[in-house]
């Protein structure tokens, strides 16, 4: 029986639009059904919900989207190849509106045993490793979006690196989102499994080609066995009108090192919930971020750094540049569980306000149950330092030039820690563009 | 080159400079001495155009133009340079980038083509030798993690690069050891000539063993209490600042 009052609920409408088509693998079917059931009839969270206090989904709630796979002839630009980083020339997967594109993907020169493939195909073929890990990590309390992705996802990336294998060059996952009249939704899914003593770099790149409204709802799950190293770069350059609500969960074992650098540039509303669970001793996790918002953009990052065992370290440097009426939100939770003695956790959130009308909300949240730990956290919200501005002007640089340089300087340490040269270059250009277009910088002069 | 007439200036509503008169001509070196807190840095900063300091009375004329009408960057492009007493650290901005941009701004002002990074490297290499700095300093962020002495050298390096007409050196000597002081003074001497002028702000007489001023002015409580030739510095060395301070107070009472 249908409950009429709930027929109009966003989640139900959205899931309903996918029809009854099911994945072939029985275990995936079960997973999807469970996910559907868990959110059926549920409303989107409102700002009364503590975790959504500054991130209103009111406009999203009113939107209607068609599944992106139903857009049969996407208006694809002819220069898709230009968006492949030279470093990833030999291994990249491209998704057009969330749909895997064989034509623009390439996976040669991979070491023996490595899998970089479309997740849908891997699951259809019943790959036991993918089935074992899928859905195991991306779990948040009270969260409709990871289950939403799980309910309907098909395509995505599966990366598997067998024991003791190192992949030198980055693997790029390119998500191209085209400019369409119809508003579409996509739910790309990534699963990365690194066995013991592996090394890899994965670059997730979401690009919007127009100014259109669409809804990008990706979920990534990472699991690293002992002694592995992974660098994970995410670049969100979705359309200025897009909604980007993503989930990232990393499960990190003994002696492993996971470094995530997330850069948020696009979307009218971007919300990232990221979680790193340090499951065993001597583990390190980095969750760094760079956010640039202008116009009326809102970018909200909620992170969970979960220290469960002794002698682990974590690093979070989250920097936001806020211009015009932009809003940045950072909520960083650090859990240090009872057993996690000798934890060394660092967290810093720095907000640079270029305009007088932007807003930054910063909330560090430490929950420490062990007694021998070192946790530092700090949040700052401020404008460019007038003494630095004066110093540069006293050297003859124009006001706007000075503000551009200092803003760039603010972003630089996050950019420089990303170990892929062409991404660094790309980001330098993005910051330059952001500051050159900045009305606040121009008007100041 | 620079004429200061009855200059009164305040910061945060407090009057710091209380009627300064000073005339600096091309080719001259003026030493401004005085006790801590007498307003020496304020004088330098107000000539450079620091926004926290406000001229409440009087004027500063530089090459025939009223400086109050000019933004600090415009003053700099027209040849006013200040070496900071406390140079700020600027994270994320490399020394070489700052100096190249700054130098190219000056070149633009003089209708010269900007230098590309390679040309600039050639240009700056001899300047580095002058201040005995390692080229690796260029790639570091401006003053970031520099020692006190390195920061002061870096200021003189910037002066060498920009070749200003009027250099305001605010306690560039303070905190330097003798070797560093010699390097810095040599640099300043090489950079001063007939076409330009130096206003050397210092608390100590020591630097005047290396740089010979044409004039010495003693600033006390926001006023020039005494002016003279280089011998005045020696007198101050002998008698201390109390000597001048005491005298002004007597004068004050007599009025
Ligand atoms: N930004 C400021 N805010 C408040 N007071 C200031 C500021 N700058 C200088 N002063 C005051 O002005 C006076 C002169 O300072 P300064 O010019 O730095 O002296 P000097 O360089 O001779 O030691 C001091 O009493 C100092 O405390
Ligand atoms: Mg001073």
Q: What is this structure's SSE topology?
A:
The complex is a heterodimer of chains A (445) and B (255).
Chain A: H1 10-16, H2 26-39, H3 58-62, E1 66-67, E2 91-96, E3 99-107, E4 115-118, H4 119-124, H5 128-133, H6 145-152, E5 156-161, E6 171-177, E7 184-186, E8 189-194, E9 199-208, E10 214-216, E11 219-224, E12 229-237, E13 243-252, E14 257-264, E15 269-278, E16 284-293, E17 298-307, E18 313-322, E19 327-336, E20 344-353, E21 359-368, E22 374-382, H7 386-393, H8 399-416, H9 421-437, H10 439-444
Parallel strand pairs in A: 1-7, 2-6, 5-8, 6-9, 7-10, 8-11, 9-12, 10-13, 11-13, 12-14, 13-15, 14-16, 15-17, 16-18, 17-19, 18-20, 19-21, 20-22
Antiparallel strand pairs in A: 2-3, 4-5
Chain B: E1 2-11, E2 14-24, E3 29-33, H1 40-48, E4 53-62, E5 65-66, H2 72-77, E6 80-83, H3 95-109, H4 117-130, H5 136-139, H6 148-162, E7 166-170, H7 178-191, E8 197-202, E9 215-220, E10 223-228, H8 231-239, H9 241-254
Parallel strand pairs in B: 3-8, 3-9, 6-7, 7-8
Antiparallel strand pairs in B: 1-2, 1-4, 4-5, 9-10
Bound molecules: adenosine-5'-diphosphate and magnesium ion.
**What is the topology, as strand order, of the major beta sheet of chain B?**
6-7-8-3-9-10
Name the largest protein-protein interface in this structure.
A-B, 24 and 31 residues
Assembly classification: heterodimer
Order of helices and strands of chain B: EEEHEEHEHHHHEHEEEHH
Between the first and last Cα atoms of chain B, what is the distance in angstroms? 33 Å
- Backbone shape of chain A: globular
Could you tell me the CATH topology label of chain B: Rossmann fold
Mean pLDDT of chain B: 91
Beta fraction of chain A: 35-45%
Query: What is the first-to-last residue Cα distance of chain A?
Result: 64 Å
Ions, cofactors and other ligands present here are: adenosine-5'-diphosphate, magnesium ion
Main β-sheet of chain A, in a few words?
Answer: 12 strands, mixed
| Average pLDDT of chain A | 95
Largest sheet of chain B: 6 strands, mixed
Question: Strand pairing plus helix content of chain A: what structural class?
Answer: alpha/beta
Number of domains as seen in the coordinates of chain A: 2
Poorly predicted tracts of residues of chain B: 250-255
